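Lecture 7 notes: from sequence to structure.

We start with a single chain of 382 residues. Read the sequence below before looking at the structure.
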Amino acid sequence: MPLLLQATAAFGLEAVVGRELTALGLPPTETEDGRVRFEGEPVDLVRANLWLRAADRVQVVAEEFDCTDFDQFFEVVGAIDWTRWIPYDAAFPITARSVRSALGHVPTLQSMAKKAIAEALCEARGDAPGSPVPEVGPPVPIEVNVRKDHVSLLLDTTGPGLHKRGYRDLSGPAPMKETLAAGIVLLSVWDRERPLLDPCCGTGTLPIEAALIGRNMAPGLQREFVAEGWPLAPPDLWAEQRAAATEAALPPLDSPLQGGDLDRNAVSAARHHAERAGVGDDIHFQQRPIAEAGSKGSHGVLLANPPYGERLGDADTVHQDLAALFNRLEDWSAAVLTPHPAFATMVGRKANRRRKLYNGTLACTLHQYLGPKPPSLTGSPV
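Now the structure, written as tokens:
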């Protein structure tokens, strides 16, 4: 019987995650704000964790039901065969959330779910009622999600969010999540045959994620996942899929991508992160102001998440320089994420596409400008 799975995502990136799943041969069955559902086998939850670039995490939907009464909630949760998911000695931490529902008291949801699951496990194992559950083994995190009186019991297979790729161990003043950076690259028209320039790259997240995409390197290859300790997805399954992902990587890019920043320490951190990600030779980082940035390549893509400043007025010069740079790159396309209300006016032309995305809790707009298509993607000058 296939598993019902879901990939969670930041608002605005659901369609990107849906396209990623389709590319993995796992077409979405349902898409809502913040989540994309799909069906698959245990190997597919492994593949999704290793390969999804813009998703936050991968969950198993263990059970769903409508409920407005805590006694009914306890009975339904206790009737589930939890031995399918939870090994004998596994820990099963419970988190809960409730939105516009009769079951609105989150601590009660957590405590009742914990008690119901513990009693169900004791009964299945033949232990005396009330016997303690060991909880010394690998964790199986469970989320109780109640929305409009509809209960979803979700098993987190990821652990730390998928943005934790493993390559970024130095931080800048306002780091962008790797999942958001990958989403911006995937929303742009960039591919490995085209030049790419990020003139305000900070610690390098945007160009690094682009290089990983260009080389078809699985973003989860360098990290571990909580489901690696589950019988549902045994270690040999993870080893097999990691080997397949390693084999799928493409050769280095023909010409390096470009990243620049005014901050010397940020540029140093960007080089360090690129090396850790395995794409050090695929990106050329340079300390320079935006006003001095440029490229000899044609039909490239300008990607940027410019600094916003503590007040938008502090960021005016940065955005003006960025707009002027883009206008100098006459046949280029661009994707710029910013909350600055005047950026489109600075560019002096209407964006082909505008998409609302969140950088953390800050609402931003992704301004996308489409330049002319390259005469030929193969062999276009870089």
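Confidence is low (pLDDT under 50) at residues 378-382. Keep this in mind for problem set 3.
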